[in-house]
Design goal:
Blueprint: H1 3-38, H2 45-58, H3 65-86
């Protein structure tokens, strides 16, 4: 495979990641609505810790576990931000 073919594959994966990130965000919004209705906090440190632990356990590499945690921290931060913004008026 040459560099152009590899870049095409990266572009394909980026599109898939974008779809998955948005699907995950939509689910987070649904959870945020339920949390708001039940008076639960948006931030759940125990849930986040379990996500990080699970993703590290599933990580086949080559990304290091610390990198996986950083990536998921960012995804979760954005989901939490979206929950706060979108559920304010609910």
């Amino acid at each position: 495979m040459d560099i152009e073919q590899l870049r095409i594959e990266i572009d394909r994966l980026d599109g898939e990641l974008l779809r998955i990130f948005n699907e995950r965000a939509a689910l987070a919004l649904k959870i945020g609505k339920i949390k708001k209705e039940k008076g639960l906090a948006v931030y759940d440190p125990n849930r986040e810790r379990r996500i990080f632990e699970k993703m590290q356990a599933y990580n086949p590499g080559p990304l290091e576990d610390e990198a996986i945690v950083r990536l998921f921290e960012r995804v979760i931060d954005e989901s939490r931000r979206l929950e706060r913004i979108r559920t304010k008026g609910i």
